[in-house]
Specification:
TIM Barrel, 10 helices
C-alpha cells in the first residue's frame, strides 16, 4: 500500500477522514445510524486514493432531488426525478404534492428505509401506486420480505440497505426480490466492489450517497459513470446536506446533472475542519 496522507475532519457532527494518495483523494465517513462497516468505508477511501476511478462511459450523471418535508416547487422541477421519504400515512400527502408539482414528465420514487412489515408495505405501496412511481426503495428490511412484497404489488421494488456484498446480490437474484438495486460505494467497499455487486444482482442499478463531502460524492459519480447502463437518476445531489464542504467548487448539480470529475480539497477548508494530520 502506498503511503497515504490522512486528514481527520469534523464537519458539524460528522466525522470525515480524507486520504490523499497517488491517484487522488478518497473519503471514509460512515453515516451514524446507517448500516455500514467502517472497514469497508476505509477500503473505499483507500481505493479512490490509490487506484482512482475505473473508466467512465459517460461524462455526466443525472441526479434526483430529495424531499423529506416542505419543498420548493421551482427547485424540484429542475431535476429529472424526485425521491420522497415516506414513513407513514402522512407521507402519502407529500408524494401527492410532489407529483402534482412536477407533473407527469418527472420521475417520482419513494424511500421507506426498511420501516414497514410486509403487510404494511403492501398496503402503502398499493396506495402509492396512484402516483405513477418509478420504484419504492427498501420498503422492508430483509431480502425475504422484499421478495414477498414484490409478489403482491405492481410498483417496482428497489433494494438498498440489505445489499452489502456480492453474496447479498446473488441472493437478491435467487429470490427475485427486487427490480432495482441501490449502490453506495462506501458501504460496499469502493467503486469496483460496487460494480461487482451490480453485475451479480443483474438488475438495473441506481447510485446513491451517504451524504459525503464532494470527495465522496465524486466517487459515487465515478461509480455511476462506470456502470454499463444508467436508466435512473442517481441520489448524489446531497453535498448541501452537510454544513460545510472541503472545496470551494463543490459537486452540486446544474440542471439536474453532475459532471464526472475529480475533486481536490482546498487547503483552507481542510485547515478549518481538520482535527489532526496523520501520515502513515
Amino acid at each position: 500500500m502506498p503511503v497515504l496522507s490522512e486528514h481527520r475532519l469534523r464537519i458539524g457532527d460528522r466525522a470525515v477522514t480524507l486520504l490523499r494518495g497517488p491517484a487522488g483523494w478518497g473519503e471514509c465517513s460512515p453515516l451514524p445510524g446507517y448500516p455500514s462497516d467502517p472497514q469497508r468505508c476505509r477500503r473505499a477511501a483507500e481505493e479512490a486514493a490509490t487506484a482512482g476511478a475505473p473508466p467512465a462511459v459517460r461524462d455526466h450523471v443525472p441526479v434526483n432531488a430529495l424531499v423529506d418535508g416542505p419543498f420548493s416547487v421551482q427547485e424540484v422541477r429542475t431535476y429529472p426525478a424526485v425521491k420522497v421519504k415516506v414513513r407513514d400515512a402522512a407521507g402519502l400527502a407529500l408524494v401527492a404534492a410532489v407529483r402534482d408539482a412536477v407533473g407527469p414528465e418527472v420521475g417520482v420514487r419513494v424511500d421507506a428505509n426498511g420501516a414497514w412489515d410486509v403487510d404494511t408495505a403492501v398496503t402503502m405501496i398499493t396506495k402509492l401506486a396512484a402516483f405513477d412511481l418509478e420504484y419504492v426503495e427498501q420498503p422492508c428490511a430483509s431480502l425475504d420480505d422484499l421478495a414477498a412484497v414484490r409478489r403482491r404489488v405492481t410498483v417496482q421494488i428497489a433494494a438498498d440497505e440489505c445489499i452489502r456484498s456480492v453474496d447479498d446480490a446473488r441472493e437478491l437474484r435467487r429470490l427475485d426480490a427486487a427490480d432495482v438495486i441501490v449502490l453506495k460505494q462506501q458501504p460496499l467497499g469502493g467503486v469496483r466492489a460496487a460494480l461487482a455487486v451490480a453485475e451479480a444482482a443483474a438488475v438495473p442499478a441506481v447510485v446513491s450517497s451517504m451524504m459525503e463531502t464532494s470527495v465522496g460524492i465524486a466517487a459515487g459519480v465515478a461509480l455511476a459513470a462506470a456502470l454499463p447502463e444508467l436508466p435512473y437518476a442517481c441520489g448524489l445531489a446531497t453535498v448541501t446536506a452537510l454544513p460545510g464542504d472541503v472545496t470551494h467548487t463543490p459537486l452540486v448539480p446544474v440542471d439536474g446533472v453532475l459532471p464526472v470529475r475529480a475533486v481536490v480539497p482546498d487547503a483552507d477548508l481542510l485547515a478549518r475542519y481538520e482535527l489532526k494530520d496523520v501520515t502513515r
